[in-house]
Specification:
- The chain is of the alpha/beta class.
- The chain contains ten helices and 20 strands.
- Strand 11 and strand 12 form a beta hairpin.
- The longest helix has 17 residues.
- It is globular, with a radius of gyration of 22 Å.
């Protein structure tokens, strides 16, 4: 399973490619891609469907034996975006000596210093001209060779670099792309890369959504290979666990299973493809209606449903023990952990936590608790955002990781295996 996780991470450097990878795996498992603009039609127990939005969020469904109105949904929700750097329009900046750098802006909240002096490349989507302006063509781009680097200034020019330095997002975080060889290349270097990778003409490119990613492959490390080192563990490791559980649960379940993979969690979820969108709610309604139900049946289904909001948590760090709550700090290898917050930034409460604990017990998996140190502000995640539009019973949980939002995060092999077991047990209930 861990080798499969590493391969999944390497194939998914950005949200668009993560969704592409999930789609391919679902299709191979017999799931049918549905057009959100078309009627769903009649659905039967065991039917396997999936929908996408914006090429960057995905919703997979396996219809249960019991009607949705009577049994509700078993939902696992996660997100496929991670902190990175977006390439701005008109990005090329030609400097002295023909050195060309790209203008970027920060996406989410990365630990910016971790992006220095490592081989980077580009991935995302490119939008092409068609005969219909309302329906341009989308092509995915994944440049697999090292292409760029954000380079430090030497310590000789910045003697305080090891004392902590405030970084400028506009000045310090611009990657080198290359050196201009001739005048035709000046201002066209990035476009030449895109056209060469996709085999298209520059005049047909209307726009793009392109991001930086670290080209170093995901790996395990440690004396016993017990740790995982990779970019985007937050939150693609939870996406992978949910996907594996959906595959492994198989057959015709009693209760309809849903895997919802959202985009834009790192920027607040308030987009058409984010957890703040009504898309999931309207999709679940349509499934109820496809079984002949009415709006009241949908409301009933929500009351009977349970949601696992899966987003990674902070593992206890041996170098910074003072940053963690003294009695609720999850350990790497100690199993998935339930996240609590008195300010209601997480959906977990005593009831939902008890339910998830019971699921872990039934799966033979340890379970931990995470609460922020009371003097340290915490983040939020999908659960409370979803619950504000869909009043679901639900729990916020995640596997603990170190270095969250670093270009490479650290997780536990055992925790990932535990999480897949727990999710699979949940889908089978």
């Amino acid at each position: 399973m861990i080798k499969d996780l590493l391969a999944f991470l390497d194939a998914s450097p950005v949200n668009f490619l993560a969704v592409k990878t999930i789609k391919e795996r679902l299709a191979a498992a017999g799931f049918k891609e549905m057009d959100p603009t078309a009627p769903i039609g009649t659905i039967e127990p065991g039917d396997q469907l999936f929908f996408t939005k914006n090429d960057s969020s995905l919703y997979a469904v396996r219809i249960g034996r019991q009607t949705i109105a009577d049994a509700g949904f078993h939902l696992i929700c996660a997100h496929c975006d991670s902190p990175t750097f977006r390439i701005k329009p008109n990005p090329e900046m030609v400097c002295e000596g023909g050195i060309t750098k790209l203008n970027t802006e920060v996406y989410g909240g990365p630990i910016m210093s971790t992006w220095f002096d490592r081989p980077l490349s580009l991935a995302g989507r490119v939008i092409l001209r068609t005969g219909n302006p309302l329906q341009p063509e989308t092509r995915l781009l994944h440049v697999k060779r090292p292409l760029l680097q954000i380079t430090n200034i030497a310590i000789h020019f910045n003697r305080q670099v090891n004392d902590g330095v405030k970084l400028s997002k506009q000045k310090d975080m611009l990657p080198l792309l290359g050196i201009v060889n001739d005048q035709l290349e000046a201002g066209n270097m990035l476009m030449n890369v895109i056209t060469g990778e996709l085999g298209v003409k520059a005049q047909d490119i209307l726009d793009f959504d392109l991001y930086l990613y670290d080209t170093a492959p995901a790996s395990t490390f440690g004396v016993h290979d017990e740790f995982i080192s990779a970019g985007r563990l937050d939150d693609l490791s939870m996406v992978h666990a949910g996907l594996m559980a959906l595959m492994m649960s198989g057959g015709v379940p009693e209760t309809t299973q849903v895997l919802a993979v959202f985009d834009n969690e790192e920027t607040g979820s308030q987009t058409k493809q984010g957890a703040g969108s009504p898309f999931l709610s309207s999709l679940l309604q349509r499934l109820v209606f496809a079984q002949g139900g009415q709006m009241s049946d949908f409301y009933r289904s929500v009351e009977k449903s349970f949601m696992i909001s899966a987003d990674n948590a902070h593992a206890w760090h041996p170098n910074y023990p003072e940053k963690f709550d003294p009695t609720n700090h999850p350990m790497l290898g100690g199993g998935p952990c339930i996240k609590f917050n008195a300010a209601q930034k997480y959906a977990s409460d005593a009831v939902s936590a008890a339910i998830f604990t019971g699921i872990c017990e039934k799966a033979g998996v340890p379970c931990q608790r995470f609460v922020n140190h009371s003097d340290v502000a915490g983040g939020s995640t999908l659960g409370n955002i979803l619950a504000s539009s869909l009043p679901l019973r639900g729990v916020d949980m995640g596997n603990p990781v170190l270095g969250m939002h670093s270009v490479r995060e650290t997780g536990s092999v055992a925790d990932h295996e535990y999480c897949i077991k727990a999710f699979t047990e949940f889908y089978k209930l």
